[in-house]
Amino acid sequence: MTRYAMAIDLERCLGCEACMVSCAAENEVPLGTFRLRLQTTVAGRFPDLAAEHRMEQCFQCEDSPCLGVCPTGANHKTDDGIVLVDRNQCIGCRACVVACPYGMRYMHPDGYADKCSFCDHRVRQGRDPACVETCPTGARVFGDLEDPQSDLRRALGDAKQVTQLRPETKTHPRVFYTNPTLGDRTGLRTAPESEWS
Fold first, then answer.
1. What total number of domains does the chain contain?
2. How far is residue 18's CA from residue 106's CA, in Å, rounded to a whole number?
3. Can you give the CATH number for the domain in which 170 is found?
4. Contact partners, residue 177, CB within 8 Å, separation at least 6
5. Confidence (pTM)
6. pLDDT tens digit string along 10-30?
7. Residue 126, exposed/middle/buried by CB under 10 A (0-12, 13-18, 19+)?
């Protein structure tokens, strides 16, 4: 069975925000609102500084706390693991916004909860999410964790290190970060191979 996920190579990410812009354009996200956010960590002392850019978005958790709190079923997971919000069923109660341990949901001005959908409409057409297609350095890879021949599994297998953000939440996030440059100073922890293989 297909199980979609994404890997973001932190050695390649420039923090250019092209993914944020393409996501906003593709998904008609209202001005001033983004489904993705950039976290930049700087370590060291001048002039010996190091920086790491990390894009965050809905982590498409295997055990998504947002699903159990939704009173209408607007929050649901597809058979291939993508967590979605049906804006027509959402009553704007904000329970899922509060339940997300990563703070990656927001209220759309039209009154429903919104978040990254892995561009589900594009995936259904056999295309990559807009953020993956737009990344100028190829830092983002999307694919099926169940397919050992997929670009995603290859990227995870070839990485020096595979990490997850705050795995202690026990949500089993499906956005992985590879090749971190600042170690565990940014909240990333090594992902056991069982999470992605």
1. 1
2. 20
3. 3.30.70.20
4. 7, 8, 9, 10, 54, 162, 163, 164, 165, 188
5. 0.94
6. 999 999 999 999 999 999 999
7. exposed
